[in-house]
Amino acid sequence: MPGKKQFRFIILTVIILGTFLSLVASSGCGKKPATGISSAEKLTDVNTVLAKKGSLGDQFIFPGKIEALQSANIVAKVPGKVASVQVDLGSKVTSGQVLLTLENKDLADRVQQAQAMVAQAKAGVEQAQAARKLAQAALQAAESGLVTAQANFEVVEANYQRGQELLAAQAIPEAVFQADYELRYKQAKEQVEKALPAQIKTAQAQIAQAEAGLKNAQAGLSATQASLSLAQTAYEDSFIRAPFSGVVTARNINPGEMASLAVPLISLVNLNKVVVKINVGEELINKLVIGKKVPVKIKAVSAKPFSGMVVNIAASADPQVKTYPVKLHLDNPAHLIKPGMFAEVNLGLEQLKKLLLPVEAVVKDQQDRDMVWVVENGMVKSRLIKTGDSDAKQVVIQSGLAENEEVVIAGAESLKEGQKVMVKCQ
Q1: CA distances from 92 to 242, 248, 265, 331, 337 (A)
Q2: What is the C-alpha to C-alpha distance for residues 127 and 121, in angstroms, rounded to an integer?
Q3: Does the pTM of the predicted model rise above 0.90?
Q4: CATH assignment of 106-236?
């Protein structure tokens, strides 16, 4: 008689076997063939799966490429021989820092010559201004003298009239009248009517002449200042400066070589912040907003994701790839992230439930259209479908199939329309 341990083992084995057979019966695997099929008829074995709704595992993980926020291939503004190069590959520079200098002694001489001409022109302007000031003073003096002369003439004229009355009354002799009244009257009248108006006219002419001289002097000053500005610009252009703060990524020139206007001398990038460019489909683009922070994984740098921020969303789709370009910024203070690296951006959007099938369930018909084989009552029927996004394991079924329909995923190579099949366990 077997022992207690052996008896317990036999009972446990029977229970496990019964449970397994029950699971097989309930799973649908090994289904009986359709009614009317003899046991001797050989059926095609297929594996199936039920179409279910779900979400792609990496539906919102987008590949992206790293670019520098700012980059520049710096060329010379004027051709010339290089006098010195102040930076090298990998040098960190600040905005406005001199990167290299061209030989510029002749340019410096031109600046000094232009400065001397400007100084001379300024002196001419000052002289013209002084001449105008003197002419204005003469005009003011003549005008003031005329006012005084007019007042004096009024007094003299009144005395002259009184003298005429005295002369008529024979109260004074003719000689006294001529000396004390008539002569003074004529002199005062001369001043008011001729002498002082002539002085005013002369002073006005002098002012006009002084104004013209000042205008010419100012034009000369403007011309010399323009020449000085050009000379200073040419001199300043001999110093090649950094347009922004960054890191030198290429140096293509050495002292003594000629700098041309076409060949880049220095390449510069700003790595304090980098840009990640991704492409997003139309079904998701309106779910993104500027300023949204999302994790960005860069495997070449760290297993821990970086924090990126959406800074730009294209208003129209790229006509070639039919998706919308999106830009994100990543802070990069340590300069570990380099341009050209690849990134994975998780947009962190709400997962949408869609009808899914394993990618192997979708096959092509003779017209190269997507289709699946659907099992109904032990027979297969072809069904044209429209597919959507895929994560290489599952594919979204947009149309042509309903949830819980049974679809062949293995054994479909030789199936024909209406063929009877035997569903096997996977």
Answers
A1: 10, 7, 16, 17, 16
A2: 10
A3: no
A4: 1.10.287.620
